[in-house]
Amino acid sequence: MQFKNLLLISVLLSSFFAQNTFAQKDSETEILDTILADDMNISLNSNREFSCWGSKKVDSMTNNGEDRNISNRDFAQLDALQHFVYAFNYPESYHQSCTFFIDPIFSENEIPSELRFDGEGYRMSIRQASAILGNRDSTSILMQACILKQGSVQNVFKKAIVNYQFCELIPALISTYLQQQNKDNYILTTLCQMMRNAGYKEFLNSPINTTLYEKVADKPFSEKIKHSIPNSKKNNAAILKMAHNYYEWEKTLENKFVQITQGEYTIGEENHPINPVRKVTLPAFEISKYEVTNAEFMAFVKATGYVTDAEKKHNASVFRVGLDEFEWINDSSANWRFPNGLTKGGILDKMNHPVTCISYADAEAYCNWADVHLPTFEQWEVAARGGSNSVFFFGNDSTKIHEYANIWKGKNHFNASPNDSFQLTAPVGSYIPNPYALFDIYGNVFEFCSNKPNAFNQFEDIVVTRGGSWWCSTNSCNYFNSVDIGRVNRHASFSNNGFRVVH
Questions:
Q1: Residue ranges making up the domain that contains 349
Q2: Pick from 166, 71, 86: which is nearest to 429 by CA?
Q3: How many other C-beta atoms are found inside a 10 Å radius of the C-beta of residue 306?
Q4: Angstrom distance (rounded) from CA 464 to CA 479
Q5: Do 198 and 222 fall within a single domain?
């Protein structure tokens, strides 16, 4: 990410924290205009239709919003900008609500704990959300352009920023807030929720978190949405300073990992034949937010000259639509560079996808080079649960899985669903993270673990994989949960196996 407004933010923050003032300067406004112009030039194609909230092509396809569900064929033809406009301007999924809330009215002297309630109406569909996250860099630049141009942050932007952790937009949020005459304190709420969701220690240990969230943690949402803290100079300055620090921290290597504290945890499930319910005591560890990507694995290969099992043995297993359930084929041309075979193209446009077609042995070699480890299956489960005791970190309702995981959407594998934005792997971070801010802990790729349960000890060459993959569906291999434990040969290379790491 290139954050071109960093100079402006530095100026604004220095002024604010030194003088605690909201005064604007003409030079800062000029810098803002220059930033906006630069971002517009680098982010849009030559026939720029962008006017923050419009696209002639999308308006035409949707009959100016009268037809909210465009065909899959038309949807596939949209570029990054048009997907952005379609998703935010014309959300296509209608949500009914049996709960009636009236958004409380807060004064300018209050900082709400929750963002405004969406209520009944249209929201972004799964395919729309997948599309804008698949073009995450472009989406971020376009949102920033809108925010800085309009001098405000739409509620739908705030929700997207929080849900998908667009931390690269923190400078735009801060600068917009500081320059507003009529302050939108929900921007402060957005910053607080981002820091809380990411488990940012400075925020979690702050009085802001205690008074804004911890005091009402056990309350129903109808009470939480009414809660606020005073927008005093002290609270205001503390939130903005912590948000700035969080932004700087996110740019460092440290942010790639989430710390799990030492303690006793409950794992497993009642009567599960492989993973029965029990308590385990684990020392503190840190686990990567994302699965290891093609770009990261490529850096390892370039540095070491490593050759993977699939490249040596030419025995990688890949999938083709139309195969029987649980049927895979060997493709001698498939390896991590061409994870679905030579004829299906390589990874040059998928560097932010998880590396696949690698074996457990290959993952271990990467870990030795990077000075990290594969998680134990117990560590993986504690991290995946995100503090919950349910089958999924979001509860026990499996119908919500598509919001959180890249899995197969077809009824079977004879045909692919036309509504599946990512038939194979998705860019890491494309779905809503768990409460510990871990992305793709379910779906995308099965993740190798370093040990195995007692039930697998009889199999010498078997290793553990967890979390399910893009191939898994609600009808086949539904291992996209915190309980089930998969297995695979340590030298097998499947196009749905990958890994994340701990240190």
A1: 256-503
A2: 166
A3: 14
A4: 12
A5: yes
Distance in angstroms (rounded) separating the CA atoms of residues 79 and 75: 9
With both helix axes pointing from N to C terminus, report the angle between 155-163 and 186-197 in degrees, rounded to the nearest 10: 10
Res. 165 pLDDT band, cuts 50 70 90 = confident
Give, in degrees to the nearest 5, the angle at Cα 56 between 52 and 58. 90
What's the pTM value of the predicted model, to 2 decimals?
Answer: 0.61
Last-in-domain residue among 251, 279, 295: 251
- For the chain, the distance separating the N- and C-terminal CA atoms, rounded to the nearest angstrom, is 25
Same domain, 223 and 284: no
- pLDDT beyond 60 at 253: no
Q: What is the four-CA torsion angle of 411, 414, 420, 426, rounded to 10 degrees?
A: 120
Last residue of a domain, one of 210, 236, 251: 251
| Pair (224, 281) in one structural domain | no
Q: Which helix (H) or strand (E) holds 157?
A: helix 155-163
Instruction: Report how far residue 467's alpha carbon sits from residue 444's, in angstroms, rounded to the nearest whole number.
Output: 9
When divided into structural domains, the chain yields a total of: 2
Q: State yes or no: pLDDT of 35 exceeds 80.
A: no
Same domain, 377 and 231: no
Model confidence pLDDT, tens digit, residues 409-430: 877 776 777 776 788 999 898 8
- Residue 310's contacts (CB-CB under 8 Å, 6 or more residues apart) are 316, 334, 335, 336, 357, 358, 359, 493
180: Cβ contacts below 8 Å, ≥ 6 apart: 151, 152
Give tens-digit pLDDT for 11-22. Answer: 344 333 333 332
**Residues 301 and 176 occupy one common structural domain:** no
Q: How far apart are CA 314 and CA 491, in angstroms?
A: 12
Contact 448, 426 (CB under 8 A): no
Exposed / middle / buried, residue 362 (Cβ in 10 Å: 0-12, 13-18, 19+): buried
Same structural domain for residues 297 and 218?
Answer: no
CA distance 178 to 17: 11
- Cβ(31)–Cβ(171) under 8 Å? no
**In contact, 53 and 65? CB cutoff 8 Å:** no
Q: What is the 3-state secondary structure (H, E, C) of 363-410?
A: HHHHHHHHCCECCCHHHHHHHHHCCCCCCECCECCHHHHHHHCECCCC
**Within a domain: 320:** yes
Q: Which amino acid is at 239?
A: I
Same domain, 167 and 44: yes
